């Protein structure tokens, strides 16, 4: 192996060729493990996303791979077509030939050509479809981006290469764009798209960054919109699910009654659930695309549905309690006041009896009068008695 590697780096077969003027063919960093390799004139045609070569001699098998993944058999022994050709990310395209005599040779190239400082490119580009029709992508400013760098974002259908420029940018505090939003993607099919961010600067070239995906793969589901209603005996939960790319859902409802442990109820495709005599409970819901992903939980809803018996009890109980409490108060008041007046009757104020006898009757009478008055003010019922006495 070590010898082979040495051979790789010592062979004069390696060359670096820039793409030709029309950009159709590029041959760069082509390394052949052996000058006896039957592969010659190795080249990438960007417009057709096809790798071509010429074969010299008899071969038994030829395979192509990108970044050493998923080897596929060559077409007619002289080309491999790729479904997606990254425009920004460097990939390693390898052709492995097995000759009729059983020897194996690999030839590879890196594509595309890297321009500018890689550290100036937008970093951590990620996108998601959310709230049904929104597509939002965000990225970070490259660590080596010049101060005047500005980013430009594009959405491009991989197959048709139709391109849309970003309609709404979001920028950081320095005015450098770090986000792009498409507010209505309802007309976009679920095909593969390339989200590409390149940049401009007066100082240096800014390489592009890309994110290639099917829009359905990046859809973040929103929780279903649920409404709950109650009558005396039943509670009805109904919900609506909205999604741009999915229409088959499994629903999970987490229901908790009183102090019971919450339980999960699952519904396949049905969008309602009826509980009988549920009393008070809380419920939240989420949607799941089977084997794939689920939405976050909805906010918990607290529902108070009175069961029929409870409602009847409640109907009678409330006035009964009010009546009892009222009675109690009235009773107390009557008792207190009655007791006062009875005391007065049993032990009429001494000053009255002393009245004709005492010399200092005046002051004592005044005192008694004062206490009398205090009693009246506290208890209006007693006042009647006092007045009657007078
Ligand atoms: C290729 O293989 C065929 C049949 O296997 C043989 O007749 C022919 O001579 C071979 N050609 C070369 C260049 O080895
Ligand atoms: C490209 O892939 C080939 C084989 O898959 C490997 O030998 C070679 O080192 C790779 N080149 C780079 C630059 O990674
Ligand atoms: C590719 O090579 C194999 C093995 O030599 C041969 O049998 C086959 O006919 C070739 N295919 C084409 C299309 O040339
Ligand atoms: C950025 O990419 C778009 C779309 O591929 C292209 O039209 C534009 O010329 C590029 N701009 C720069 C500065 O490379
Ligand atoms: C949820 O449904 C209600 C009633 O159907 C509607 O008024 C509301 O706008 C919906 N909310 C969302 C986020 O869809
Ligand atoms: C309460 O709602 C349930 C479910 O919709 C229904 O079957 C039932 O007849 C209703 N009961 C009353 C008393 O309205």
Automatic annotation (TrEMBL):
Residues 125-212 form the Type I cytokine receptor cytokine-binding domain. This is Interleukin-3 receptor subunit alpha. The chain crosses the membrane at residues 313-337. Keywords: Cell membrane, Disulfide bond, Glycoprotein, Membrane, Receptor, Signal, Transmembrane, Transmembrane helix, Ubl conjugation. Pfam families: IL3Ra_N (PF18611), IL6Ra-bind (PF09240). Belongs to the type I cytokine receptor family. Type 5 subfamily. GO terms for molecular function: interleukin-3 receptor activity. The gene is IL3RA. GO terms for cellular component: external side of plasma membrane. Cell surface receptor for IL3 expressed on hematopoietic progenitor cells, monocytes and B-lymphocytes that controls the production and differentiation of hematopoietic progenitor cells into lineage-restricted cells. Ligand stimulation rapidly induces hetrodimerization with IL3RB, phosphorylation and enzyme activity of effector proteins such as JAK2 and PI3K that play a role in signaling cell proliferation and differentiation. Activation of JAK2 leads to STAT5-mediated transcriptional program. It comes from Rhinolophus ferrumequinum (Greater horseshoe bat). It is a single-pass type I membrane protein. It is found in: Cell membrane. The keyword Magnesium does not apply. The keyword Lipid metabolism does not apply.
